[in-house]
Design goal:
The complex is a heterodimer. Chain A is an alpha+beta fold. Chain A has 20 helices and nine strands. In chain A, helix 11 packs antiparallel against helix 12. Chain A starts with 6 loop residues before the first strand and ends in a 31-residue tail after the last helix. Helices cover 74% and strands 0% of the residues of chain B. Chain B contains 19 helices and no strands. The chains are: A alpha+beta, B mainly alpha. Chains A and B meet through helix 2, helix 5, helix 6 and helix 18 of A and helix 1, helix 8, helix 10, helix 11 and helix 13 of B.
């Protein structure tokens, strides 16, 4: 539970002729996370897999063609039927043949529709021009033949208008932006006729696309607008007719295109798997990761489908595995904890050698939330809201959020009992522990103590993580290793003594608790280098080590002090409740208003403070806790599978 | 100030370590005297490029592979710097890296315009990995320039290409399209700068303003002396941002005659640099080199000052850009057998 699912690396050598059958079986099994065979190093470089790149490119091209046709016809995505036999080359040929028939028919209609739509848009732009001139009683012919003025209109990128205006400084001109058309503006530009060439060049460099009023529109602008209306009606009629043609095409080809896309999708996954395989004259080599618990089943399935004509090598992962082909991460937590995996993933998917902090993250998040939001009544409301969300009764697809809210609500109720708080009432029930407002110093002390425990757990997890990675430098000398833990607890003890019993602090104690670990920290690179744990870094100077040591002490201090916010927000929560009561008390003579203030105040507290407290708890987890042991940057386990839910691990998912 | 110290103490230490691994002017001069590819790789073995050059030597890599590997180190510098500084600073660095994406897009557009095979273009693209969301494979398969624009219709570049393509259709040249992409890139970069705050905003605004000065002057020189564009066109093809070069300077320079005229319109220190270039055999190229050397000197002066701000990261990337430019000049020299003096003249980081 605290570590990702253990994986093993499999290298499967199979006959070329068995590849399709093997792929189909692996797709049904859905446990192999494939990686590029190139990760095997030098000996795999001689293997040839370029031919699959060509096939993959043809698949991508055919898929684009199919998508375009489907998009134009409005064909729904239907990848629900179980996949048929895996046959990438045959599928490509068949779908290509189908598209060769359908495409010309759809393209003709598509081009006509596009042309009509472009004409309509152009008419709308002209309409804008004419509306601007509507109050000018002049004939359009006269406007086109202005003797002393030169006028151009067209569409120009919005951000270029101001620059164009500035570029014409010194030349008498008028720029009239009329209306927005997409990301561009319909613009009229007017200069004296003698400056026509200058304006043309300026407009061209400002990327103005000219839109002229058609020469066959005559009369005054108002008369031209009437003519335009008639043309628009005609274009609309033709467009509707083309749409009917499109519907007819959809009725005719709907089933075939949907089926072809489904076949393409399934076989493209297989091609992507094959792209990652190596090839000799008659053999194919597939490499990937399989959960350790599935390796027996994997081996048995492969042996069955190939009739034992295959070789399977299984290897355990090692921290030194090169990044591009390193083991993927699959988190495995009990069902109640799974909604909290989102907390971990938002920070970053753990690397395979990282610990999975989800169980601890869930516990700490709930504890901190409850401590800052302790109220039996408001917690119950939150839990009820969470139950509704988890049951899909408010918004679909938010079940995990609902379950987290239920946990938060219950935690808030428990702390409400401890604080003796119900909907902000502080006198209704007795406090099982203490009332924060009556003893704020205790609250602050508990918050800081809690912080010390959390940070210490983080550092211990850092040790465990370094142990898993077999990284002695981090284990013994790292910021989150033994040295970090020594320094942190040294600082804690020194701070506690300084507050409680300063007289007992001796210079030797300071040297032992803080000075010695700091000195070791300053020297950690040369020490690790001399022990052969790391290679000496160029440029990693004493100044850098000094800055890092200073930074570490500051961070440990600020990380701990940061937990004061748990106490501060608990007080703020109670303070907000009291404010609501004071306001309600002010209007006691108006019972309805008083009740309304109480209800509204609690609603605001739950919504606003609930959100703020949630963010603060998350922040404490991410910055003060996760940073001590979690590196992130893991590759998600994506098994190759055929079928609607299947995913695969394409080359593009390589890590940097 | 204290916030800056907390935020940048660690990135600053690590950036300094990265800067210390950049090639020194002496190393660059020595490289400029190397006449063949193997010699360049052997010289690089003594530098931070050691592991890369050893691998390339072992594989017997060609010029294109070496150039790609060198560009890979620039991409890695952007990636590491972005993750080091994080937050708005990291977003600015990612935005800076998009210049390489724009260069890739231009290369693809040129290839599609010439109808070249994807296999010809692919090795020329900067390997950006996760720093770019450009669907390179799809773009390389596109039938023509219009198809590239269609594939990017929903991306950041969609509206820019939509506005510029009518001119490509009319003129048959990608020149206006490439200018539109450049202007779009720098507009976004400037917006990212303006999202910074405090000392970061102050420092980076000055630095990026200087870079815009340089770009505007470089472009004005080319538009005026090579393409013979009108002042209005030049004005529209330049950036409305800068440190010392404002709209009035752009207007004066865009109307000036010859390199001397442009130099006269520019403020110091650009005036002196451009006057110096005016006497060179190829004044346009010389001016470009001198302006970029000025940028390198600005980066070095930033590194010599107060250390806890984002300007350190930007300065580091400028120096890295200059190093990669200079290495590419060295590699080009091995192809065309150019003399060390010619190579040194082209370098930005040797001053």
């Amino acid at each position: 539970m605290l570590t990702p699912v253990p994986m093993v690396r499999v290298e499967l050598l199979t006959l070329d002729r068995d590849l399709a059958a093997v792929s189909q079986r692996l797709g049904a099994l859905g446990v192999l996370h494939p990686v590029d065979v190139g990760v095997l190093g030098h000996w795999a470089e001689d293997l040839d897999w370029a031919e699959m790149d060509q096939l993959a490119a043809e698949y991508a091209s055919t898929a684009r063609r199919a998508d375009r046709v489907a998009h134009f016809l409005g064909v729904a995505d239907r990848l629900s039927a179980p996949p048929g036999a895996v046959s990438p080359v045959e599928t490509l040929r068949r779908v290509g043949g189908l598209l060769d028939v359908v495409e010309p028919e759809t393209r003709r209609v598509e081009e006509r529709i596009r042309g009509l739509e472009a004409d309509l848009q152009r008419l709308r732009v002209v309409e804008g021009q004419l509306e601007l001139l509507a109050d000018v009683g002049m004939d359009l012919a006269a406007l086109r033949a202005l003797r002393f003025l030169y006028m151009v209109s067209g569409l120009i990128p919005r951000e270029n208008v101001e620059r164009l205006d500035d570029s014409l400084e010194g030349t008498p001109h008028a720029l009239l932006p009329v209306r927005q058309v997409g990301s561009r503006v319909l613009l009229f530009a007017i200069v004296q006729r003698r400056d026509a060439e200058l304006l043309d060049r300026a407009l061209q460099s400002a990327y103005l696309e000219r839109v002229e009023i058609p020469a066959d529109l005559t009369g005054t602008p108002r008369q031209a607008l009437d003519q335009l209306e008639g043309r628009q009606a005609e274009l609309d009629r033709r467009l509707r007719s083309e749409e009917q043609e499109r519907s007819a095409l959809r009725d005719r080809w709907d089933r075939e295109i949907a089926g072809a896309r489904a076949d393409l999708e399934v076989n493209a996954r297989v091609v992507r798997l094959w792209q990652q395989a190596g090839r000799t004259e008659r053999m194919r080599l597939l490499v990937g990761w399989v959960p350790r618990e599935s390796r027996e089943r994997f081996a048995a399935e492969v042996a069955t489908v190939t009739g034992n004509r295959s070789v399977l090598a299984v290897e355990e992962p090692a921290p030194s595995d090169p990044a591009p082909g390193a083991a993927p991460t699959a988190l495995s937590n009990p069902a109640p904890l799974r909604p909290f995996e989102g907390l971990t993933r938002t920070y970053g998917l753990p690397d395979y050698w990282d610990l999975d902090p989800t169980p601890l993250a869930a516990l700490l998040f709930l504890l901190m939330f409850g401590a800052m939001f302790g109220d039996v009544g408001q917690g119950a409301v939150l839990a009820a809201l969470g139950l509704a969300l988890a049951g899909g009764r408010i918004v679909a697809g938010q079940r995990d959020l609902g379950r987290v809210l239920v946990g938060c609500g219950i935690s808030a109720m428990v702390f409400g009992l401890l604080y003796g708080s119900v909907f902000g009432y502080e006198e209704l029930i007795p406090a099982l522990w203490f009332r924060p407002l009556e003893n704020p110093l205790l609250l602050v002390a508990v918050a800081v103590a809690f912080g010390i425990v959390v940070i210490s757990i983080g550092l211990v997890l850092g040790l465990a993580s370094a142990w898993r990675r077999r990284d002695p430098a981090s284990l013994f000398l790292g910021q989150s290793g033994m040295l970090g833990l020594w320094l942190y607890w040294g600082l804690v003890v020194v701070a506690m003594l300084a507050v409680i019993e300063p007289g007992r602090l001796s210079p030797w104690m300071l040297v032992l608790l803080v000075g010695a670990p700091l000195l070791l920290f300053l020297l950690r690179r040369p020490i690790a280098d001399s022990l052969g744990w790391i290679e000496a870094e160029e440029g990693a100077s004493a100044i850098q080590a000094g800055v890092e040591a200073f930074d570490l002490v500051i961070r440990f201090t600020s990380n701990t002090i940061s937990f004061l916010r748990v106490g501060a927000f608990a007080l703020a929560h109670i303070g907000l409740g009291l404010t609501v009561f004071v306001l309600a008390e002010l209007v006691r003579s108006l019972p309805l208003a008083s009740v309304a203030i109480l209800v509204l105040g609690n609603v605001i507290t739950i919504a606003l403070e609930g959100l703020i407290v949630g963010i603060q708890a998350l922040r404490l987890e991410y910055y003060e806790f996760f940073t001590k042991f979690l590196r992130g940057g893991g590759v998600a386990y994506r098994p190759f599978a055929l079928g609607r839910q299947g995913t695969e691990s394409p080359r593009s998912q390589r890590r940097d | 100030m204290s916030l800056g110290v907390f935020r940048y103490s660690r990135p600053n230490a690590q950036l300094r370590a990265m800067i210390s691994r950049l090639l020194t002017p002496e190393q660059l001069r020595a490289l400029s005297a190397t006449r063949d590819l193997e010699g360049v790789l052997r010289s690089l073995q003594e530098t931070a490029y050691g592991p890369v050059s050893a691998r390339l030597l072992e594989r017997g890599a060609g010029l294109a592979d070496v150039e790609r590997a060198v560009l890979g180190t620039l991409v890695e510098a952007y990636r590491r710097t972005a993750s080091l500084v994080g937050g708005d600073g990291g977003r600015l660095v990612a935005e800076m890296a998009r210049r390489l994406e724009v260069e890739n897009l231009k290369a693809i557009l040129r290839a599609r315009a010439r109808g070249e095979s994807p296999d010809v273009v692919r090795p020329l693209l900067v390997p950006l990995g996760r720093l770019s969301r450009l669907p390179v494979s799809d773009l390389l398969q596109a039938e023509d320039v219009d198809a590239v624009a269609s594939a990017l219709a929903d991306a950041n570049y969609g509206p820019v290409l939509q506005s510029a393509l009518p001119r490509y259709a009319a003129e048959g040249s990608l020149f206006p399209v490439e200018i539109a992409l450049d202007l779009h890139y720098y507009r976004r970069l400037w917006s990212a700068v303006q999202r910074l705050s405090g000392r970061d905003l102050q420092m980076v605004t000055t630095m990026m303003g200087t870079r815009c000065d340089l770009l505007n002057l470089d472009w004005i020189i080319r538009y005026r002396l090579i393409y013979r564009l009108s002042p209005e066109e030049i004005f529209n093809y330049t950036l409305p941002y800068g440190h010392r070069v404002d709209d009035a300077v752009v207007r004066r320079a865009a109307s000036a005659e010859g390199m001397e005229g442009i130099a006269g319109a520019a403020p110091e220190p650009y005036r002196s640099l451009l006057s110096q270039a005016a006497n060179a055999a190829d004044p346009v190229d010389r001016a470009s080199v001198l302006l970029h050397r000025h940028l390198v000197s600005v980066a070095r002066s930033v590194l010599a000052g107060y250390p806890f701000h984002l300007g350190i990261a930007v300065a580091h990337l400028w120096l890295k850009e200059a190093e990669v430019h200079d290495l590419r000049a060295v590699l080009e020299a091995t192809r065309y057998d150019l003399s060390p003096d010619v190579v040194a003249m082209e370098m930005w980081g040797v001053a």
